[in-house]
Design brief:
Length: 112
DNA sequence: GAGGTGACGACCC
DNA sequence: TGGGTCGCCACCT
């Protein structure tokens, strides 16, 4: 994965780019995959900066550990939910339906 | 140049 | 079992 110049953020972006279509993951899983389970907060902040990336990464596929769309506010009105639904992911009350089934864990899927 | 802040979550009373 | 605290580190003022 990483040249020395790769920051934590860059690694986060790499993982997010690997999330399959129609699947979701959470901040903690990405942080854990990168080796610091306590850096989940950084993952969230990385998503904030993700908007300015070209091309933009699928930040809408990253939700919090209970499947809640906590980052929704950072998108244009309802954009996050629309993107998820366009991938076949149902959203109710800002929460991903069947989150456990749709959950994509990089540690499991990609290995350590 | 230093300090505050933040799309979270693990850990400790 | 549940609520509060602290860590993590890039970015902005």
């Amino acid at each position: 994965m990483k040249p020395e110049t790769y920051t934590f953020f860059e690694n986060v972006y790499d993982v997010v780019r690997l999330i399959p279509y129609g699947r979701v993951t959470n901040y903690g899983a990405i942080a854990a995959y990168l080796g610091s389970a306590r850096s989940s907060r950084m993952v969230g902040y990385a998503m904030n900066a993700a908007h300015s990336l070209v091309p933009p990464i699928a930040a809408h596929r990253v939700v919090n550990r209970s499947g809640l769309l906590t980052g929704k506010h950072h998108f244009v009105e309802n954009r996050m939910q629309e993107l998820l639904e366009s991938e076949g992911i149902k959203v109710t009350n800002n929460q991903v339906v069947d989150f456990e089934k749709l959950f994509w864990d990089p540690i499991i899927e990609l290995g350590i």
